[in-house]
Design goal:
Blueprint lengths: L2 H27 L3 E8 L4 E8 L2 E9 L3 H7 L2 H17 L7 E9 L6 E3 L7
Parallel strand pairs: 3-4
Antiparallel strand pairs: 1-2, 2-3, 4-5
């Protein structure tokens, strides 16, 4: 791996981490409690896990040029894995039993406020 490619990868990871922090702060301002960052499960890696009331939000964070691009970036298979990962986490934690698991998106675009879309892919 070249030094340039390595530096580019490190910068992308750093930007991703910053985007997740911004997304977490945005959710907290909306009344969510953040339960975890970058949770690795058998099914998928969850960017953010947040709880508000009896709703457990599995949050995918995307930093893209537009909301449409962010929505299209998450494939059907990835969404399916994220839903299963959220359900498995909820089933394994007594405090989360009975919580409704939902897949949300937070899209970040340069120069714009974060956009939180609850149940972003409810149609599939």
């Amino acid at each position: 791996m070249t030094a340039v490619r390595s530096a580019r990868g490190a910068a992308a990871r750093q930007a991703g981490r910053r985007a997740e922090v911004v997304a977490a702060l945005w959710l907290m301002m909306k009344g969510y409690r953040i339960l975890g960052f970058r949770l690795k499960t058998r099914q998928a890696e969850i960017d953010l896990l947040a709880l508000r009331g009896k709703t457990l939000a599995v949050v995918e964070v995307k930093r893209r040029a537009s909301l449409l691009i962010a929505l299209e970036t998450v494939t059907f298979d990835q969404r399916d894995r994220l839903r299963r990962a959220g359900a498995a986490l909820a089933a394994g934690r007594p405090a989360l039993k009975g919580a409704a698991v939902r897949l949300d998106l937070i899209a970040l675009a340069p120069g714009k406020l974060p956009r939180h879309i609850p149940d972003a892919w409810k149609g599939d």
